[in-house]
Design brief:
The complex is a heterodimer. Chain A is mainly β. Chain A is about 0% helix and about 50% strand. In chain A, strands 2, 4, 5, 6, 9, 10 and 11 form a seven-stranded mixed sheet that branches. In chain A, strands 1-3-8-7 form a four-stranded antiparallel sheet, with no helix packed on it. The N and C termini of chain A lie far apart (about 35 Å). Helices cover about 0% and strands about 45% of the residues of chain B. Classes of the chains: A mainly beta, B mainly beta.
């Protein structure tokens, strides 16, 4: 049982490049989330999904896109990377009545 | 979701109880109090949650005041491995239960 798996663990992007952060869970959880964490700050919710085919914006969705074609996967897309998107990104999942399980994070630097 | 207020930092001696306070004066009747912690740069880890009654599990105890406007997380015998940022979060849980993180309390357990 791997839990929540995020790839890659580290990435450096140039301004204007695009990339997809991958998130997969094997717990059959309906709910999945993407957060970002800037240095010294708490986590901020980017997007979330309550099930396959359903996504919604969180606190800071600008500059990001998501999709949820399967229960297991919830990729986060950055189309035109900007320095302000330098952050650590965490994916999480849960079932409707349980606590969150977080992945180990992706550390992204945009230069 | 109701907002929470926590001290920025606290120290605790190893082996002693760590008592982490949280104010949530605008909490609604259907909102739970959740506690998560984040060790170094790892993903947050669930600790405990409660609605009205005090709760205890293998990690910690949660004491909620009768008016529900504040709570205290208690780590009964703090160890060096409990050094982390602790987040107190108020959320409705269930399908409406997005977690909104503040800055939390940085707990330093000292030998």
């Amino acid at each position: 049982n791997a839990g929540v798996t995020q790839t890659p663990k580290f990435r450096i992007l140039k301004i204007g490049q695009s990339m997809t952060l991958q998130c997969a869970q094997d717990m059959n959880h309906n709910y999945m989330y993407w957060y970002r964490q800037d240095p010294g700050m708490g986590l901020k919710l980017i997007y979330y999904s309550v099930g396959a085919g359903i996504t919604d914006k969180g606190e800071v969705p600008n500059g990001y896109n998501v999709s949820r074609s399967t229960t297991e996967d919830f990729p986060l897309r950055l189309e035109l990377a900007a320095p302000s998107q330098t952050s650590v990104y965490f994916c999480a999942s849960r079932s409707s009545d349980r606590d969150y399980t977080f992945g180990s994070g992706t550390r992204l630097t945009v230069v | 979701d109701a907002k929470t207020t926590q001290p920025t930092s606290m120290d605790c001696a190893e082996g002693r109880a760590a008592n982490l306070p949280c104010n949530h004066s605008t909490i609604s009747g259907n909102e739970y109090v959740y506690w998560y912690r984040q060790i170094h740069s790892q993903g947050p880890q669930y600790i405990i949650h409660g609605l009205k009654n005090n709760e205890t599990n293998e990690m910690a105890s949660l004491i909620i005041t009768e008016d529900r406007k504040s709570s205290t997380l208690i780590l009964p015998h703090a160890t060096l491995r409990d050094t982390a940022v602790y987040y107190c979060i108020v959320s409705r849980g269930g399908s409406q239960g997005n977690l909104i993180f503040g800055k939390g309390t940085k707990l330093s357990v000292k030998p």
